[in-house]
């Protein structure tokens, strides 16, 4: 095998190894969530998701702990199904909230990392950022989401 053949072969191998990541389809997404406590149980919210990831969403509270500077940290597990029936999986996330009135909390920091899914979200990655408010007196949460979703090459 001559020198040119070795270079060509090496380039071909590198291309084949990198092809899935080179052709992953990443795009910005955004929308909103309106959820209520009690749809499943007292520690799980449930409601519709609108926007680019329209469907239904739930978040189960796994833990609650005091955070810095008077904040509260909710550890949650998201459950998301799009209107087309594809599930989106997430790693557990931490929602840091601050009180704005008795029983009402504003989101200080809340990011959720995608961890695959079913159908078109199989192998998906990315991160969603949330802003909004939780009214524990009424048992409601309203959030906006935005971020990047990268779909694996199909």
List keywords for this structure.
9 strands, mainly beta, AOC barrel-like, 9-stranded antiparallel β-sheet, 154 residues
Span between termini: 35 Å
Instruction: Assign the CATH topology.
Output: AOC barrel-like
Main β-sheet, in a few words? Answer: 9 strands, antiparallel
Q: What CATH architecture do you see?
A: Beta Barrel
Spans of 5+ residues with little confidence (pLDDT < 50)? 10-21
**In the CATH hierarchy, what is the class?**
Mainly Beta
Radius of gyration: 20 Å
Category from helices, strands and their pairing: mainly beta
State the helicity in percent bands. Answer: 10-25%
Provide the β-strand percentage band.
over 45%
Order of helices and strands: HEEEEEEEEE
Shape: globular
Which assembly state applies to the chains in this document? single chain
Helical region count?
1
């Amino acid at each position: 095998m001559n020198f040119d053949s070795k270079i060509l072969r090496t380039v071909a191998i590198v291309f084949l190894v990198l092809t899935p990541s080179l052709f992953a389809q990443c795009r910005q997404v955004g929308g909103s969530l309106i959820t209520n406590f009690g749809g499943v149980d007292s520690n799980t919210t449930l409601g519709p998701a609108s926007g680019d990831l329209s469907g239904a969403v739930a978040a189960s509270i796994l833990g609650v702990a005091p955070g810095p500077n008077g904040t509260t940290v909710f550890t949650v597990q998201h459950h998301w199904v799009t209107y087309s029936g594809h599930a989106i999986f997430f790693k557990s996330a931490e929602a840091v909230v601050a009180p704005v009135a008795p029983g009402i909390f504003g989101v200080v920091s809340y990011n959720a990392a995608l961890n695959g899914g079913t159908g078109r979200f199989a192998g998906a990655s990315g991160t969603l950022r949330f802003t909004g408010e939780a009214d524990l007196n009424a048992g409601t949460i309203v959030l906006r989401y935005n971020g990047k979703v990268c779909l694996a090459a199909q």
